[in-house]
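Quick one: co-fold with zinc ion.
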Amino acid sequence: MIEEGSVVLPGDIIATSEELFPGYGTKDVGGNIIGTIIGNFFINKKRTAAEIKPLTSVPALLHKGDTIICEVKKITDKMVLVDILHVAGVNREMAGDKDAAIRVSDIAAGYVVSARDEYRIGDIIRARVMQARPAMRLSTEGPHLGSIKSFCSNCRVPLVKKNSVLECPRCGRVEKRKIASDYGEGNIDRKVKFVRR
Ligand SMILES: [Zn+2]
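Sure, here it is.
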């Protein structure tokens, strides 16, 4: 069973059907309880069920058209879950719930087979708020949007842009991302600390 409070994306395995019953936002698929909506996992103790509290709250600071800087927390084939670090041009800390999701169809122009092909956990990306309410919708479609800082999957050092791909200066590994046109120029993000946890 995953930890209570964890953010779950559709398709994530939460527990086995021996541990919990399916409840709101989950279903039993072949003995696994999986999430069907985006939100936080909790146990409904009365029903011994795995339930999801949907991600609905949108930070008051965010409006349609805003450009935001986020960090990728989780990825499935269909979506990318991000933690919003700050709103570009707004000199204020983000407070409260900062989770948001980017659907695979909103990652780039054209057909993206899997979100995993475009982003990795830890990427710092620039996204645009397409819709703030009632549910937030983010996009990274467009030349100025996408990763502005990505890290080597092997050695975790920042990747360097080389033509249309990214290369690790330490081990030489080449990785692909949906990158912003100014990837690696570091001119927008003095507030974001690129520190690996
Ligand atoms: Zn490397």
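If it helps, Residues 81 and 101 are 4 Å apart (CA to CA).
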